């Protein structure tokens, strides 16, 4: 089948699947209690040992002659960061090993290209958010998929490794499986949160998934999908160089409005208003926004310039983890940044603007988990305040919770104690290297010893 014809066929199939969503929703709503109970069991399960190399069978493993060729894809900045750490893990494993190093072809961004990876499409430079963002990006996604199909057609690929970004990556996984190429998904999709009907398709599309949250193997194992908990890669971050400036002794509030353009546009202005209110009666309060991407820093400065009286906000072009050791509290958009702040032991208020009618419907009727902040999910209880923002009143509630965490008192002490327990539950560093061991083994032929997975074939 030609590339153009396959792209058309897959696009039509996705349209039909989209049209079927209302039916899936009705079926799901009728059985929602059962799905909620299944997710609750997964959250309550004891965390597995991330060092257990016997837990992940792959359904397709083939002998590789010569240099293994791995296709690696990440669709946004956070996924690219995980891909870079995965490459670090592969490099560590290569030390003293005489076997051929995998040749990496990638979809990603400028940071992967700077590492010498053969970048075939700048997918991570065009991250999309929400249903509207996906619809606007359809031409881009079709071009990316066509480029991927040409790689599968014209070049020998021994293993496909997809990092997070489950929308397009699910379609890419299916294309690889049709060609008999093994597929590993690193960072499992959040099907435990909503839409568990998608598990059947996902189970057919990937050979195995490498998970980074301790409750996920119980969920995917119950669905009959081989999975391996490797630990969380945030624990692998090298120590950040200390931030050197003249304000080290001032109490600092860190604002993290997100990594995507739309996230920043939705979260920045209200966050600044809450910081302004806290600053009004907190002498010496320092307000900092830190972002490593110069394009996002420029956007933040542009948006701040459009607001009145924002000169008190410092915008720093650097990794947030360089500021976190100095932060007394953090106001952060839900996502990887919120978990990073919690792992640094910084009391945080986690927010997420529920934008659009569909997002509100999902939040009110489709969620199968009691929390959306990763720290709260990992501990199966509220460690840090989390607020889904729909109205101005929700932002006011976020401000109240921020004030309670900022001031010395019972709520702040309870939060600090819980954050210490969170780090213990996530285990030891080494997630990237443990994931790299599986990537190397599956791409090169011989594999670690495995045992058969257990679980219901029908899923939760």
Summarize the structure.
The protein is α/β, with parallel strands linked by helices.
List the helices and strands and how they pair.
Elements: H1 3-30, H2 32-44, E1 69-74, H3 77-94, E2 103-107, H4 110-114, E3 118-121, H5 130-136, H6 138-154, E4 159-163, H7 166-178, E5 183-186, H8 199-205, E6 208-211, H9 216-222, E7 227-229, E8 252-256, H10 261-280, E9 286-290, H11 294-305, E10 313-316, E11 327-333, H12 336-343, E12 348-353, H13 357-366, H14 374-379, E13 386-389, H15 392-406, H16 410-426, H17 431-444
Helix pairs in contact: 1-6, 2-9, 3-17, 6-7, 10-11, 10-15
Could you describe the 3D structure shown?
- The chain is an alpha/beta fold and 460 residues long.
- It has two domains: 3-231 and 428-444, Rossmann fold (3-Layer(aba) Sandwich), CATH 3.40.50; 252-426, Glycogen Phosphorylase B (Rossmann fold, 3-Layer(aba) Sandwich).
- The chain contains 17 helices and 13 strands.
- It has helices at 3-30, 32-44, 77-94, 110-114, 130-136, 138-154, 166-178, 199-205, 216-222, 261-280, 294-305, 336-343, 357-366, 374-379, 392-406, 410-426, 431-444; strands at 69-74, 103-107, 118-121, 159-163, 183-186, 208-211, 227-229, 252-256, 286-290, 313-316, 327-333, 348-353, 386-389.
- The longest helix has 28 residues, at 3-30.
């Amino acid at each position: 089948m030609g590339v153009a014809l396959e792209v058309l066929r897959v696009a039509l199939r996705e349209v039909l699947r989209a049209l079927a969503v209302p039916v899936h929703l009705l079926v799901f709503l009728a059985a929602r209690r059962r799905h909620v109970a299944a997710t609750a069991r997964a959250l309550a399960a004891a965390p597995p040992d991330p060092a257990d190399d016997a837990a992940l069978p792959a359904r397709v493993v083939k002998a590789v002659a010569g240099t293994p060729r791995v296709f690696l894809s990440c669709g946004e900045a956070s996924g690219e960061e995980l891909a870079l750490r995965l490459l670090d893990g592969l490099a560590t494993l290569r030390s003293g090993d005489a076997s051929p190093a995998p040749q990496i072809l990638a979809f990603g961004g400028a940071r992967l290209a700077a590492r010498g990876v053969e970048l075939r499409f700048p997918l991570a430079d065009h991250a999309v958010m929400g249903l509207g963002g996906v619809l606007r990006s359809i031409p881009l996604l079709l071009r990316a998929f066509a480029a991927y199909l040409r790689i599968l057609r014209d070049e020998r690929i021994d293993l496909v490794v997809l990092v997070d970004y489950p929308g397009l990556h699910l379609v890419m996984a299916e294309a690889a499986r049709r060609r008999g190429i093994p597929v590993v998904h690193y960072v499992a999709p959040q099907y435990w949160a909503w839409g568990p009907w998608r598990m059947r398709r996902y189970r057919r599309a990937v050979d195995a998934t490498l998970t980074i949250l301790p409750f996920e193997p119980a969920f995917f194992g119950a669905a009959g999908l081989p999975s391996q908990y490797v630990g969380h890669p945030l624990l692998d971050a090298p120590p950040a160089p200390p931030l050197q400036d003249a304000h080290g002794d001032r109490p600092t509030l860190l604002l993290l409005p997100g990594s995507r353009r739309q996230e920043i546009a939705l979260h920045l202005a209200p966050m600044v208003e809450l910081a302004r209110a806290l600053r009004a009666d907190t002498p010496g309060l320092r307000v900092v926004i830190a972002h490593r991407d110069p394009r996002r820093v420029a956007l933040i400065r542009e948006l701040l310039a459009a607001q009145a009286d924002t000169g008190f906000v410092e915008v720093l072009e650097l990794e947030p983890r360089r500021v976190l050791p100095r932060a007394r509290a953090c106001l952060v958009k839900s996502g990887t940044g919120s978990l990073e702040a919690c792992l640094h032991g910084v009391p945080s208020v986690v927010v997420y603007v529920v934008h659009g009618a569909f997002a509100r419907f999902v939040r009110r009727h489709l969620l199968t988990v009691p929390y959306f902040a990763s720290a709260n999910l990992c501990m199966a209880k509220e460690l840090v305040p989390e607020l889904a923002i729909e109205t101005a009143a929700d932002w006011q509630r976020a401000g109240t919770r921020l004030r309670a965490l900022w001031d010395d008192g019972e709520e702040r002490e309870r939060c600090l104690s819980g954050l210490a327990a969170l780090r213990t539950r996530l285990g030891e560093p080494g997630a990237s290297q443990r994931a790299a061991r599986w990537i190397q083994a599956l791409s090169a032929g011989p594999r670690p010893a495995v045992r058969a997975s257990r679980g219901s074939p029908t899923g939760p």
